Amino acid sequence: MEKNKVKNKAIKVFTPNATSQLVVEETIRLIKKKVDVLDLGCGDGYIGLNVFKKRRNKIKSFSFSDLSQKATRKCAINAKKAGLKVIIKNGSMFDPWKNKKFDFIVESVSAISEPVAYWSPWYNKHITCKAGQDGTKLVNDILKKGKKFLNKGGKIIFPIVSLSNKDKIIKVAKKNYQTVKLLSSKSWPLPKVLYKYEKQLKKLKKKKLIEYKKKFGIILYSSYVFVAVK
Ligand SMILES: C[S@@+](CC[C@H](N)C(=O)[O-])C[C@H]1O[C@@H](n2cnc3c(N)ncnc32)[C@H](O)[C@@H]1O
């Protein structure tokens, strides 16, 4: 009975996925000296809190923000459970961080093609993805504005999922940062619930708004983790 109740409850905070884990691993590798870090689009804090746990002695301050109040509340609970002292703010994009600067920004704000997001198991009316048809709207805005929130030589780490227009994002990153480097990439099977939208997915792919491959009947999409240096 209790089990069913939990199962039927709509998920209200983004559930960290394989891409989140990839971002954690690459960010841990990059942090070498004492830094101020921002986890932007933190959700329940999965990325930042796991990085903080592994690099405790290298963190001057760790800040978190998300548009969703439910997410930032969950992040605060998780930080407390882990015994980590963090700064958590609620708000859209960089709004909560006026006049602040960081050495590292780890951003993972919703960035997949909007229709795909709402067909997928990852998003719903509580977890928004106002990223546009090609998924680039929010991440490109972050890349353009991010420089202002980075110290000299500061780094922004961002994942790109191939369910968005990857080339358009890279173009904006290259225009705004000194260097842009691919840290890692992996392919994953598309969640089964998306197969019933294959016709629509094909149309988006034809328009070059998203990219995926089909091998032996399995649809594979990819995640990439990039770092850009100011
Ligand atoms: C892909 S999830 C990543 C969550 C978390 N970092 C993780 O990996 O589990 C995207 C997050 O971006 C947040 N988001 C969406 N639009 C936003 C905006 N305009 N400003 C800040 N956060 C936003 C969502 O609420 C969601 O928590």
Percent in strands: 25-35%
CATH architecture assignment name: 3-Layer(aba) Sandwich
The count of helical stretches stands at 8
Sheet/helix structural class? alpha/beta
How would you name the CATH homologous superfamily? Vaccinia Virus protein VP39
Number of domains: 1
- H-E order: HHEHEHEEHHEHEHEE
Instruction: Give the integer mean of the pLDDT values.
Output: 95
Number of strands: 8
Rg measurement, Å: 17 Å
Kindly provide the name of the CATH class: Alpha Beta
Biggest sheet descriptor: 8 strands, mixed
User: Which small compounds were modeled alongside the protein?
Assistant: S-adenosylmethionine
Low-pLDDT sequence parts: 1-8
Describe the structure.
Helix 2 (18-30) runs parallel beside helix 3 and helix 6 (137-146) packs parallel to helix 7. Strands 1, 2, 3, 4, 5, 6, 7 and 8 form an eight-stranded mixed β-sheet that branches. By secondary structure, the chain is of the alpha/beta class. Helix content is 34%, strand content 27%. The protein has eight helices and eight strands. The N and C termini lie far apart (53 Å). Bound molecules: S-adenosylmethionine. S-adenosylmethionine is lined by residues 14, 16, 20, 41-43, 46-47, 66-68, 71, 92-93, 108-110, 127-128, 138.
